[in-house]
Specification:
This protein has 3 helices and no strands. The chain is mostly helical. The chain has one domain. It is elongated, with a radius of gyration of 19 Å.
Length: 58
């Protein structure tokens, strides 16, 4: 088991860093949404969410 960990340490570290990055991105998006910040910039003409039957959220 220890040998496997040593052989795959680089892959494990990269996977953990990517997972942490995804968690931080999701956390930021949730905080922005709760704060009322718009992800589309507020222009419904260019927002794909508004074009899809009002799914934009603002």
């Amino acid at each position: 088991m220890l040998l496997w960990l040593e052989q795959n340490l680089g892959t494990i570290v990269v996977a953990l860093l990517l997972a942490a990055l995804v968690v931080l991105i999701i956390r930021k998006l949730r905080r922005d949404r709760r704060a009322g910040k718009l992800s589309c910039g507020g222009s419904c003409g260019s927002c794909a969410g508004c074009a899809m039957k009002g799914r934009c959220g603002h």
